[in-house]
Automatic annotation (TrEMBL):
<dbReference type="Pfam" id="PF07734">
    <property type="entry name" value="FBA_1"/>
</dbReference>
<dbReference type="InterPro" id="IPR001810">
    <property type="entry name" value="F-box_dom"/>
</dbReference>
<dbReference type="InterPro" id="IPR006527">
    <property type="entry name" value="F-box-assoc_dom_typ1"/>
</dbReference>
<protein>
    <recommendedName>
        <fullName>F-box domain-containing protein</fullName>
    </recommendedName>
</protein>
<feature type="domain" description="F-box">
    <location>
        <begin position="83"/>
        <end position="123"/>
    </location>
</feature>
<dbReference type="InterPro" id="IPR050796">
    <property type="entry name" value="SCF_F-box_component"/>
</dbReference>
<dbReference type="InterPro" id="IPR017451">
    <property type="entry name" value="F-box-assoc_interact_dom"/>
</dbReference>
<dbReference type="Pfam" id="PF00646">
    <property type="entry name" value="F-box"/>
</dbReference>
<dbReference type="InterPro" id="IPR036047">
    <property type="entry name" value="F-box-like_dom_sf"/>
</dbReference>
Amino acid sequence: MQSGERFLELWMMKECGHLNTLVRIQLDYRVAPQCPALNPFGFHPMAIHPADIPCFLMLEVQKTRDNNKMASDSSNCSDHGCLPPELITDILFQLPVKSLGRFKSVCKSWNSLISTHNFAKSHVQFQISSTSNNPSALTSVLLISPHPGFVLSCDLKLLNGHSFDAAIDAGLISPLKLGFPLPSSTTFPPLGSCCGLVCIVETMSMTANSKTLCVFNPTTKEFRYIPFPNTEDYWPARHWASGLGFVPSFDDYKIVLLKQTVTFIANDRVYHNTADVFSLRDGQWKVLDSSNSNLDASLGGAYLHTRSPAVWSNEALYWVVPSFPVGPLGSFFILEFNLAKERFSRAANVEHIRDADDRIMYDLQNLSIGVIAQKHVCVGQIYSMQSGEQFLEMWMMKKFGELNRLFILQLGSDITRRNLRLLGFTPNGLVWLVSAAPGRQEILLLDPSQNRPAYVLFAEKYVHHVMSYTPSLLSPS
């Protein structure tokens, strides 16, 4: 308007030839300078740029309140001149979890919508998809340290280039209070992470009746304790692996624990492989027969030696397993577990063929697996040459049975440190590395396209594990 007032007007075409006015809002003077033309942002499915969504929705609610169009019980926003319910739902999907917590207090209909299990499932899937398709997006990070024992959940952008120890001391971020001691060594890493839920082991001093597993949501602080199956069989176990995955077709989470013991009979190795599966929906463990589940055939005599938990994609869990001792040094395969069918298989193999003069030193701790763009299983490996050069090699499985090399990257001098260790990947393809130096630790987030650290965290306290996760409203109960 010539007076300087600015208005936002929306129309919707519900049928051909008819364009109906949805709403006309006079923008508040504090908001108008931040909301220029609507054209650059577009509409559904994004509606408005995500950074402006909370402001837009609150303006809408404030307008109806000022005009006395909202009932005293605030029972249903859609009946009082607000946006259509389906458009409100699409906009709410784009908000972070903390904003959704505040928006639950706007009215009863929003509170009911946001509190439903179906909304929580759809919201986290939208967030995972948005993060995976945006190279600049970052999920939250979970840092686990057994000395003195804490789990820290934070946004990477808050800590870039800073020490998170100093941030804790200053009260800027606080460790999660889990109510139990964490392990005092790296024997038990996090068992897995999926759709905002994380599973870890409670304590090293396990007894048969102790509740030793904890599934928790770092965002909502909800916990669920689960007894460890046949504890005496898993501690101490020769080799074991774990994973946490979601089964959309059953609307259920499953925890999978694999154990392998080795005995020697007449100088021959005899492997005993077992798999335990826990259903969060049913609340029960069950033991899978290693023959019927195809576990023995899938491992094929290889050591079940994997340092990282399984990753989840398309109703399946995936582990990266070195082929030793039956395969060449440096070779590995991907072990798949179909969560719906509860059956194992070898998804892909990589066999290194090198000249005898190659002098490559492999470290099993520097083999890791991740999921990029929500659907592509990737494997990364760091190896060193005797000359001191270090390389990062990555493969991607685009379809079952085929693992294609993406690149071999010689790490730059600003990345290579002594005791460099590969931790994993973020959903948008960044690589987690940790570098130990005397008296301090550097946690690096590497952008392979630029061969330089994208984010660097400094830690005085020792950190054993770093895990990316997507904040969600899903409950472990």
